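hey m, so remember when u said the tokens were messed up on ur end? i reran from scratch. heres the input so u can diff it against urs
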Amino acid sequence: MFENIEFANPEFFWLLALLPLAVVWYFFKRKDQTASLRISSIKGFSKEGVLPKLKPLLFLFRLLALAAIIVAMARPQTEDISTRTKTTKGIDIVMAIDVSSSMLARDLKPNRLAALKKVAADFIKKRPNDRIGLVAYAGEGYTKTPITSDKSIVLSALKDITYGQLNDGTAIGMGLATSVNRLKESKAISKIIILLTDGVNNSGFIEPQTAAELALEFDIKTYTIGLGTNGNALSPIAYNADGSFRYGMRQVEIDEKLLKDIAKSTGGKYFRATNNEKLEEIYDEINKLEKTEIEEFKYYKYEEKFRPWVLFAGALLLLEWVLRNTLFRSFI
């Protein structure tokens, strides 16, 4: 009966302390009301019947009824809580991903592109209340997915990103400008670009500085990530006869100054990822830096449960009254 029950006025339970006093009072009063007669022997009297021995039941019924009334006064009730969330500050995010041949380097496992796709997928799953888009770039840039709240579409598009879909090269300016173009019409309060590259700008007809100025004009914050180990990495250096890549050690070159300038000018931050663990840490940090404000509304529905206790008390008092005026009438 008490499962999932709360009491609105539990202070009334202090009244239960009066019940033991009532029991003491009853037995003292009963003793005073019982007549006594001293005789030498009771052999001539018949044995006492059962009903007189059951007379205390009447007091017990009244006592239980009083306890039930006290419980009812404490107002037992059940509580049903429903919630509704509302995004008060949504964030639109575009992830610009370098898909040049150098992204197949194996300093990250199994290679840079595969490692990035895994970490980026985890990042997307952690942003359920934001809209996310994808831009891929190499020698040129294009929109893989416009900003959308449908994460299944974004994750599917991310999975399909591979090397060979674009001319080779590293057009950082094109990747950034394409991302800005996706966000410039956005009505979101916060707009950010996460641009990742593992090289230096060597392609495209838009300079990275020009793209950064566009991002600043449209109030788009840009986080930049340089991907690659320090020193040399096992990277594609030529094609084999069957069209596959031939790998060899190559110096890792990342234009960190350019990436830092882009991030600083737009209010973002530059990161360097030299291994899989560091890449995960970077996306976790960006996830913490860019928080979506969510307003939660709670609705409380209370259902009063005192009525059964009142009815129970009434039934006990009625039973006590009926027995007192029928079976036990001659003994009262």
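this time it looks ok to me. The first helix runs from residue 18 to 33. if urs says something different then somethings off w ur setup not the seq
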